[in-house]
Specification:
The chain is of the alpha/beta class. It contains ten helices and 18 strands. Strands 1, 2, 8, 9, 10, 11, 17 and 18 form an eight-stranded mixed sheet that branches. An eight-stranded mixed sheet has the order 5-6-4-13-14-15-12-16, with helices on both faces. A two-stranded antiparallel sheet has the order 3-7.
Length: 370
Amino acid sequence: MNLSYWEYKTWLSNVDFTIVGSGIVGLSCALRLKAKFPKANILILEQGMLPNGGSTKNAGFACFGSLSEIIDDLKSHSEEEVLQLVQKRYAGLQLLRENLGDKTIDYLPNKGFELFTNTDQVLYEQCLSRKEEINTLLQPIFKERVFTTQKNIFNFKNIQPQYMVNQFEGQIDTGKMMQGLLKKVQIAGIHILNNCSVTTIDDLNTSVEIKTDHFTFSTHKVLIATNGFASQLGIDRVKPARAQVLITKPIDGLHIKGSFHLDKGYYYFRNIDNRILFGGGRNLDFITEETTQLGQTQLVQHKLEQLLNETILPNIDFEIEHRWSGIMGVGNQKKAIVKQVSENTFCGVRLGGMGVAIGSIVGTELADLL
């Protein structure tokens, strides 16, 4: 790009901190840096027109893990590690609510419900038998029983007779949340350049040279907050994971209210604006969904529609209005990677599908590495 003197002088000169990625982590990091260094010149680079990973494409669940997810995590993590994961997610949700306010993000404490299909008999019985064990494990965080059971009040079909209910789970409006964060960043005088993909980060020890698809410039420090796209910038141990989502047209008299998990959290749905938003299904084909390409597949979309027809909205006429996908960052461990990469480069990535819950706190931790 043939930039003018004015463009270089105003946006690309004397940059103290450059943040790659304008999602929850990147914006939270920028706000924390501005609070710590009020006079700093902070620049955010974003490859999309809007945040291009998962921050504006998620389902808006204010959650920290369903009962079956926590039980599953205990197979590969110690009790202390699982407790730390849940604590961080819950603390991150409280930080998000404090930073923006419940009204701004349209937070609704509508509870979380985990459903089990008729073929999930073993998992269902396991969750029933271990429910109080997990409640005891989480007691230090919540001071109350987290998980209870409830009959099938929403008349779903082909599922076990009871839900597992999480009284501490809620919903947010993802778009309003990101608008709120962007507004705070803009008020703070932090610049964001969209449609700008970083191709190379070269740490020169005294500064960092950043090459994008439009220009090259120097900055003092770089903070990578691209989550599912982190491997493109040389961050190991992060794999992309595409999440496909659809939403119905408004449904008259929709009686479903809450955040719902199915099949260990691989499927999830909720009510919003008299519609059902439904996503998931990457477990049908992990290899294909390990991609940074946005889009849909017939395999996943067919399964989502089948579950809508047979389980979630049986005997209810509905139409699909919109489909999209987002990119998460996952790995062998669920703990986020927040570390120094080189002399002047840092990263906060691998949020494991819990960006809404831990994005604010990971962004803060990333800034605090400096």
